[in-house]
Design goal:
By secondary structure, the protein is an alpha+beta fold. It has one domain: 2-Layer Sandwich (Heat Shock Protein 90), CATH 3.30.565.10. It is 49% helix and 18% strand. The strands form 2 sheets. A 5-stranded mixed beta sheet has the order 2-4-5-7-6. Helix 3 (84-95) runs parallel beside helix 4 (113-127). The protein is globular.
Length: 212
């Protein structure tokens, strides 16, 4: 059985920062573009369009920051618990749109910080299995402090990205861990930190992720 790859703390931090920046570049750039349009003294219709673009992009950036704060950040002091209701709110803000909907069936409870971080990272993995959108169903496994998660996705051409299972297990197949690979790698770290293992399986047209 392969030994999971390890990263130095500075490398892990840098790669996670790269991932967060990647998520924020597009909406922040759109805000800047909208401001530039307004500064050019465009006609009223163009200015109205620019203001709508700024509002939409700022909302997107805020939602992504709130999600990343919990999914990748400290989100409280060491040993802190996080409300799964807060996790639901940031997940909906980050992921739900005209193409993707979340069916949230978890109870609202306080869970250890790393379990909630794991949940949010599993949701990112789940979203990656339905690149054209679809439904993400989140269900509990177990209860209490040992509560874990089952996430099922359904959508057009749902599939498991080939490199993801290995990255979750800490096996990069000899390739470097970069900004694109760091999220599934980090999800595996989180799972192991709470004594769980993430598995992905295709069941007909549905992709199922479990942590147990």
């Amino acid at each position: 059985m392969p030994v999971p790859v390890t990263l130095e703390g500075l490398d892990l931090a840098a790669l996670l920062c790269s991932r967060v920046c990647h998520d924020l570049i597009n909406p922040v750039g759109a805000v800047i573009n909208g401001i530039e349009v307004i500064e050019d003294d465009a006609d009223e219709q163009t200015r109205t369009f620019a203001l709508e673009l700024i509002k939409k992009s700022a909302t997107t950036a805020s939602a992504r920051l709130q999600f990343c704060r919990i999914a990748f950040g400290a989100a409280g002091s060491a040993g802190a618990s996080i409300d799964t209701g807060d996790a639901e709110n940031v997940a909906r803000g980050m992921m739900e749109d005209d193409k993707t909907k979340i069916a949230w069936k978890l109870p609202r409870v306080l869970l250890a910080k790393n379990r909630v971080k794991l949940l949010l990272n599993m949701l990112l993995l789940a979203a990656g299995t339905i690149p054209r959108g679809g439904t993400i169903t989140v269900e509990p496994i177990g209860e209490g402090d040992a509560l874990s998660f089952r996430i099922a996705t359904a959508g057009l051409n749902a599939r498991i990205p080939p490199a993801v299972p290995g990255l979750i297990a800490g096996d990069n197949g000899g390739a470097p861990i970069d900004g694109h690979a760091i999220q599934p790698f980090y999800a595996g770290l989180l799972a192991r930190s709470v004594g769980l293992t993430i598995t992905l399986a295709q069941e007909g047209e549905t992709i199922v992720l479990t942590a147990k």
